[in-house]
Design brief:
The complex is a heterodimer of chains A (about 350) and B (about 180). By secondary structure, chain A is α+β, with helices and mostly antiparallel strands. Chain A has a domain of about 180 residues. Helix content of chain A is about 35%, strand content about 20%. In chain A, a hairpin with a 4-residue loop joins strand 2 and strand 3. The two termini of chain A are about 35 Å apart. The C terminus of chain A is likely disordered. Chain B is mainly α. Chain B has two domains: about 100 residues, Rna Polymerase Sigma Factor, Chain: A, CATH 1.10.1740.10; about 80 residues, Winged helix-like DNA-binding domain superfamily/Winged helix DNA-binding domain (Arc Repressor Mutant, subunit A), CATH 1.10.10.10. Helix content of chain B is about 75%, strand content about 0%. In chain B, helix 2 packs across helix 4 and helix 3 crosses helix 4. Chain B starts with a helix and ends with a helix. About 10% of the residues of chain B have low confidence. The chains are: A alpha+beta (about 350), B mainly alpha (about 180). Chains A and B meet through helix 1, helix 3 and helix 4 of A and helix 2, helix 3, helix 4, helix 6 and helix 7 of B.
């Protein structure tokens, strides 16, 4: 059942029938779950041949002129972390080191590219998504970092070559710190979670390029990291991945502070008959708060209770416990805690 | 046979592009541009937007050519997957447009895909088509329309006047049937 759900999600991701929210969650899964990335790749191969039946249309000739100008500014070896087939398996086995930052690429070339991307005007064509390149780069960076050995937190291997430049690299370094910190938090938390055998909170963290609004950042002056840390747009969404094992996420939570909605996607099997999954908000300062039953449907959206503060939700941990049918009888988790995770900033909410 | 030769040539060109060969990149562009533009135009409807994504996609091909693995995909499916993925992100984030807003898009998308001579078909495509052919006709239709037009479940439901839950069930069932039929 678990495999079918995940497979169907991957298939619909490739086919393109998912909603914006679901695509965002699938993007998060792609980062943290190499198994899912592999399934997506298989589906791209299965369905990809359909392109043969799409009628070819000649593009206007000036498209090539623009592309040629673009590649003139983009040395082939400068950006390696992005992929339509994210190089997830490779990152895991270490072969990703081959396409690493090429030594002969001067850092300023990389730096130059960032303002370039950022300076792209907001088109009235409603090109509202963040430029895909940067987005993907951050996504895959998050993955690579989540694969670091848990303890002690090592220096990110890729940090040094790119450190001097205000390039794409600094945000990755920031994120690695976040991820290591959060992973430690998760381990501490495990200490008082009786039923857990292996919690690992791997985090999908991707900061949309809209946060680096061109107006906020004169090219080359301010590092994108600073901007990202200083300006958290109010609409930016939060994502949490609740899981038991690093490669098997079970629930994906998305919190939209603006609409005050929380979306829960179940990617594990539904609970056995007579049991229910209950979602808990765990804030250090008080007892766990129930956020209701989850997992009866694959995908649910519900409003955040009015008395919940979004800032608290931002910093809280989340857990899913196995309860008797209908939920905990006494308002606190009674069954084993099966999955846990924390919220991280996601891409800013789309204007829709 | 022509198709096979073409594929081999594209793989070779991508290898050259990975080494930074701009002339090879231009040949790769010439060999693939019409297919990618056709795919993008169908999904995005607006030429200006499709051109925009053409630029983004080829820039990606340029920077990522060394990550292309012929064991995983053919060059054209690799490139089309990149382009489609980006195009669908854009249309989803833009919000689903109603039929009234884009009558042209509907017209284009309702057309049946152009007939294809059997000799143009790769083995993989024949296998996929034979598996698609085992689905009920209305399920074949939603899978193909979703692929060609980049429609979401909601759009499929609206445009085909079928409840969205039915679309959801059909899609899931169809895709899992395709998986069973094709294996890996």
């Amino acid at each position: 059942m678990y495999d079918d759900d995940r497979d169907a999600l991957a298939a619909e991701y490739v086919l393109g029938t998912l909603s914006a929210d679901e695509r965002e969650q699938a993007d998060a899964l792609l980062v943290i779950d190499p198994g899912f990335a592999e399934i997506v790749r298989v589906w791209e191969r299965r369905l990809g041949e359909l392109n043969v039946m799409v009628e070819a249309v000649e593009p206007p000739p000036d498209v090539w002129d623009k592309i040629r100008t673009d590649i003139g500014r983009t040395p082939r070896s400068d950006i390696k972390l992005e992929s339509a087939f994210p190089a997830i398996g490779e990152a895991e086995t270490g072969t990703a080191s081959t396409p690493g930052i090429s030594p002969e690429t001067p850092p300023e070339l990389t730096a130059e590219r960032v303002p370039d991307l950022l300076a792209e005007p907001a088109h009235d064509l409603d090109l509202s998504g963040p430029p895909r390149d940067l987005d993907d780069a951050s996504l895959v960076a998050a993955l690579a970092l989540s694969l670091l050995p848990p303890e002690p937190p090592p220096e990110p291997a890729k940090a040094s070559p790119s450190e001097p430049a205000p390039s794409l690299a600094p945000p990755k370094i920031e994120r690695s710190a976040d991820i290591i910190y959060l992973a430690r938090e998760a381990r501490r938390w495990r200490g008082f979670t009786v039923a857990m055998s292996a919690i690992a909170a791997l985090l999908a963290l991707y900061v949309g390029v809209e946060q680096f609004a061109p107006g906020l950042m004169p090219p080359g002056r301010q590092s994108p990291t600073d901007v990202a840390l200083q300006t958290k747009p109010p609409g930016s969404r939060l994502v949490a991945v609740l899981q038991q094992e690093p490669t098997a996420p079970a629930f994906l939570l998305t919190l939209d502070p603006q609409s005050r909605n929380i979306t829960v996607r179940r990617v594990t099997s539904s609970p056995d008959a007579g049991r229910s999954y209950e979602l808990w908000l765990i804030d250090k300062s008080s007892t766990p708060h129930s956020l209701g039953l989850v997992g009866t449907d694959e995908f649910i959206t519900r409003p955040i209770p009015a008395n919940f503060d979004v800032d608290v939700m931002r910093g809280a941990s989340y857990a899913v416990s196995l309860e008797p049918a209908g939920g905990s009888p006494n308002g606190a988790p009674t069954g084993p805690i099966l999955f846990t995770g924390k919220m991280v900033e996601s891409v800013p909410g789309s204007p829709s | 046979m022509a198709v096979m030769l073409m594929q081999t040539e594209l793989v070779w060109l991508l290898g050259e592009v990975a080494r930074g060969d701009e002339a090879a990149f231009e040949r790769l562009y010439a060999a693939t541009r019409a297919k990618l533009y056709g795919v993008l135009l169908r999904i995005l409807s607006r030429p200006a937007l499709a051109e925009e994504v053409m630029q983004e996609t080829y820039l990606k091909v340029w920077t990522m050519a060394d990550q292309f693995d012929p064991a995983i995909a053919s060059p054209i499916t690799w490139m089309v997957a990149m382009a489609r993925n980006r195009a669908i992100d854009i249309v989803r984030k833009r919000g689903d447009v109603s039929i009234e807003d884009e009558p042209e898009a509907l017209e284009v998308a309702s057309e049946a895909p152009p007939p294809l001579a059997r000799r143009e078909m790769t083995e993989e495509l024949k296998r996929l088509l034979s598996c698609l052919g085992k689905l009920d006709p209305e399920k074949q239709r939603i899978v193909l329309l979703a692929y060609y037009s980049g429609w979401s479940r909601d759009q499929l439901a609206q445009k085909l006047d079928i409840p969205v839950n039915t679309i959801k069930t059909w899609l899931r069932r169809s895709l899992l049937e395709i998986r069973e039929c094709m294996g890996n």
